[in-house]
Amino acid sequence: MTARLHIHLDAVGGIAGDMFVGAMLDAAPDLAPRVMADLAAVLPAEAGRPELSSAKVSGMAASRFALAGGAAKPHHHHDTGTYVAFCRRIAAAGLAEGTAAEATAILRRIAEAEAAIHDVPLDAVHFHELADWDALMDVVAAGSIAAALGGARWSVSSLPLGGGVVRTAHGQLPVPAPATARILVGYEWRDDGVGGERVTPTGAAIVAHLTGGRGNGAHPGGRLKAIGTGAGTRTLPGVPNVLRATVFEAAREGAEALTVLAFEIDDMTGEEIAAAADRLRAAPGVRDVLLIAAQGKKGRPVTRVEIQADPAAADAIAEAAFLETSTLGLRRTEVRRDVLPRQAETAAGGMRRKRAFRPGGVETVKVEHDDLAGLDGLAARRQAQGEAER
To answer: Per-residue DSSP letters for 81-125?
Structure first.
């Protein structure tokens, strides 16, 4: 039985790029050399140096990640702050394996949001609010962390809504900023009564990238391995301005024991068998009931009934089978059931779905049929299923 990591982000004070990096390097300090090497490769000398330092936030120990000793904004080319320029710099930097792909994917989420807001092509996007070295540092550092933890699953708590306005190149705009709100459509927000910008566009893009843009995600728990706390730069009234990362080792479900109860029926009508199967499926401890058409003695058609049950409930389920059907005997077989890790989610449209994690990093998604059944027409059901499984 192997294990994989599940990392949950608690947005206590909010989420920004520097808070995410601080929290993760606090939880996993062994990643710091990789992250710092990637930043040294991508940042010019004029940008200064990235620093990870200890901080106290509302009396709590935390890690602060920041750029020190350099020019805040790139100024040597007029197009340095464009999406295209950022991508070119990342691609040319010679970063650790996987970092460039992860960082570019994070950056693309911001660019797509800005392109939609301003109705311009992706290649024409200029990061007015992100055109500084700090933003590039946060995106590359987050990409390096994501690449190093490639097999991990991520979830995030509800996000603090904040309030008021934020100053942008286009004037004062309401919080959450337009790009932040667009990136995090489908995520849960909460109003804790504390204003200001609580989730930045960079923080939003990191969260959306790690959780697949699917919403906050399920938090399955497991063995707690590490905790990290990243410090924000503002002081918030009554709320510690921190992001907490909790790292869990979630064991793969692997194998579990089941009892299969099997028997054949040749003297019940189809309606009677269907009613019995429905009642058996509802019995405590029953995992599934299968009805299989077969041929019995003297060529007579029979229905084979197989009940998959929790071993502890097998006796009670056998009694229910004798009560609900005409069988005079049944067979029990102890089997092993191999189970893939999976998690339950809710798509942006409200439909429930199940995500399974298959060998080789492959993920598959299936929408709950009950959520589709109320739609009229096969085409409508298929369209809704396709949208919910994206």
So the answer is: TBHHHHHHHHHHS-PSTTHHHHHHHHHHHHHHHHHHHHT--GGG-
Q: Which two tokens stand for residue 145?
A: 């962390």
DSSP letter (8 states) at residue 170: T
pTM, rounded to two decimals: 0.65
Residue 1 banded pLDDT, cuts 50, 70, 90: very low
Count of positions (residues) in the chain: 390
What the block records as the tokens of 248 is 């869990």
DSSP class of 269: -
Q: Are 292 and 277 in contact (CB under 8 A)?
A: no
Residues 146, 342: Cα–Cα separation, whole Å: 20
Sketch the domain layout of the chain as residue ranges.
Answer: 3-251, 254-339, 342-388
CB atoms within 10 A of CB 63: 24
What is the spatial distance between Cα 103 and Cα 95, in angstroms, rounded to a whole number? Answer: 10
CB atoms within 10 A of CB 337: 13
Angle subtended at Cα 347 by Cα 345 and Cα 348, rounded to the nearest 5 degrees:
140
118 versus 38: the higher-pLDDT residue is 38
| Secondary structure class of 239 (helix, strand, coil) | strand
Rounded to whole angstroms, the Cα distance separating 279 from 265 reads: 16
Of 3.40.50.150, 3.40.50.880, 3.30.70.1380, 3.90.550.10, the CATH number of 254-339 is: 3.30.70.1380
pLDDT for position 2: 44
Q: Is the pLDDT of residue 358 over 90?
A: no
* Single-letter code of the amino acid located at 23: A
H-run or E-run covering 145: helix 133-148
Q: Which carries the bigger pLDDT value, residue 126 or residue 99?
A: 99
